[in-house]
DNA-binding winged helix-turn-helix (WHTH) protein (Dokdonella fugitiva), 883 residues
Amino acid sequence: MSTPARPVFTFGAFRLDPADRRLRRDGVPLDLPPKAFDALALLVERAGRLVSKDDFYATLWPRTVVSEANLNKYVWQLRRTLGDGDWIETVPKLGYRFVAAVTVDDATRELPGPLVAPMPAVDAHARASARRVLVGTMAIALAIALVAAAWLRHTQPATTASIAATGTSPLPVARRTLVFAATVPAGDVSHALASSLPALLAEEMALSEDLRVLPRADVGLQFPDLLRPARADDRATGERDYARWRALGADLVASTTLAPEPALGADGLRVDVRVYDIARAELVERIGVAGSGDHLDALVAQAGDRLRNALGLNPLSAALARVRRATSPADADAARAYGEALELESERMANGARERLAFVVARSPGFVPGWIEYARSLYDGGFAAQATAAARDGLVHAAAAPRELRLALEAVQYEASGAWPQAIASYDALYRFYPDRVDYALRLASAQLWGGRPDDADALLASLRRQPGLADDARVLLQDAEIAKQRGDFTRARATATRLLGRADELGAPHLRARALLIRGTAANQLKDHDAAQVDLAAARAAFVAADDAFFVARSDVRLALLAQSRNDLDAAGQRLRAALPVFERLGAQWDENIAIGNLVNVDLQRGDNREARELTERSLALSRTMGDHAGENWALAQLAGFAFAAGQTRAALAAADQAIAGCRAAGDTRNLAWTLADRAQYLDLAGRTDDAVASADEALRQAQAIDDATAQSIALRTRGTAELHGGRDDAARRDLEQALALARRSDEPLYAALAALALADASLEAGDAQAARTRLAPAIAELERSGARGALAQARALQARASAALGEHAAAREQLAASERGAAGADYVDALAARYAAVQLAAAAGDGTRARALAATLRGELEARELAGAARRVDALLAARR
């Protein structure tokens, strides 16, 4: 008698017929999407057993790469369809299990798990009861064996779930955490190949669902020396440094030796792995395998199988065994290049690392970790467009890779392309399925931060801190400081850095300590605590010098330059930045190089060195375009607009500003947009387009308010007030300028407060109140002298001369004008313009009408040639006022 190929299942009020693809509840058909139905059939057919994520993907999407969210969606649909009750259990990181009792209508088919056979007769009932008792006894025996095996190798006993009444629920064992120490190369084996081995074995062992492997980045963050290939004579230092391994949260540390195997020919290699139990501080396992370097993937797989067996882990499932090739490069050349890239990355030689990784993915395109490293290296260096393309190319080759790797590569692609909602979804899925991977949680928090969801990032970090051992975890503290910095909460950033400093001291991690000092010093500078900032930043730099870390020495120089700039020591700031630039260029750290260039441009502008500032801005523009850094490109375009305006190219300046504004809008770059709109308003005002200038300043103010940038708001109000003043709207102008001054003072920006005071002094002169102008100017001039802002100081001296002339103090006015003209030498045209106005007014005030008219005619001609009709009208107004 024939039996159906697939039985019919009953659970609760439901009846599932996979062959007819029908699900009924109390006899009523229910609709399910095809993929949801397939997922339910897979779960029910394996009721009581874990269905891994890879099993789902192999069954539901055998030839397609999809987001983790797809599986989540169908499981959610199933739970909603089935309603109240415990139907589907989530097994974190691993997959799902159907936990309800299931009856199989086909009595000839036995399914493992909590299944109840149909009971048409007493003898059938007896047989079913006997089977349940037998399975329960076997499960208990297996549990005892597993616990005993775990105890022998691990001091923390395996946690066990209580055995269900049926005796058929799986017995989970606590996942231990394994970390790989540096490899010891023997004979003529290259250090590069030795560097790659721990990373490749880590990827291989990470396929084990009952083991957690500590990511390489987590080790390097706190103890970078533990990743460097070890010498034979100091091997024990790395593998038996139990205190540091314990601080990383590891239970087991594996140390590997890679040596030639002459018996297998010139390409023969031998891998020996020694595993130490950290809590017991003793060697617990040792394995060795040999094979051909031309088939390194097979050698790594062989070592992984032997190591799993030695540690009492489950063998890989058939699905995982099929995809393991994607976790190792195909041959020794690709592995050697991968190791070289890892070494270069540890030395922060980004250009060299990217070159080697490009070779790796070209040589071994199916090696997905290589694509992930390559795409992330590009992205971290600022090459967003190239990183997106690399991740996309990698996904083409990742169809046969483990699901975790495919999803991680997808996440990098979304992150690099700025598709933050998708990046957030990808990292959220990774963290939910792998909740013990703190690095996925932190990448999720970073994506939330840059994706405009800082509150979600803060909430995620708060949940992490509540987990055992993570309250003062260095990784969590570093991310917390970054979020605080991006939110402008430098008090919080400083406090977090202090906690990180304490944690680094507990761990005995000098490099981490230096990074904490760098963060704290940067925050202190933002909080205007310059003395404390100097102490922390100098100490951080000295520590990085001692560690021979050129990259972080250069980063420290940039922070010290910003501190010097805050103290108005422009010479020191310029020296620091010029020292950092060639280091970043040599290391291929283009992102940091561009930041240093931008800061040096600001120093040069403040010093009045427009020639070098323009050259550096053009360099920044080229670098930004190479990297695909739209924010950097927009900033550079805005700066070049200013240089064009100063050179008399008003139309070109407005066109460049419009191009920068369009770029800012497209990139959602609100901060640069606010500043560029304010610059554009100034150009329009001087060009005589007052209404357009006011409108541009209005929008600048709205954008600055949207991001709560008080400095940008002050600038926008000052620009709008100046345009209103020139348009005859005196009351509105004064209100805006007073508000600009108050905002600058409230945000502790003395330079911008001084600039607002200059605008108010100009308004007082326009209103004929020279004494009020002089009162405004005195503290502003003192601040500008202290800050070294030559161009603004030249303007202030010119206003001072006009005030003195209006009060009849002609000798003082001449001295002040001479000081203004000296200060304006080498400054841009707009900064020098105030002295030219003052010269006209002084000549008129002294009764030398002929000279005043001649000066005015020359100046008016220049301004008209520059298409600055608004500025030209001011010359006529000055002459008219004296008549």
In short: The CA atoms of residues 490 and 527 lie 7 Å apart.
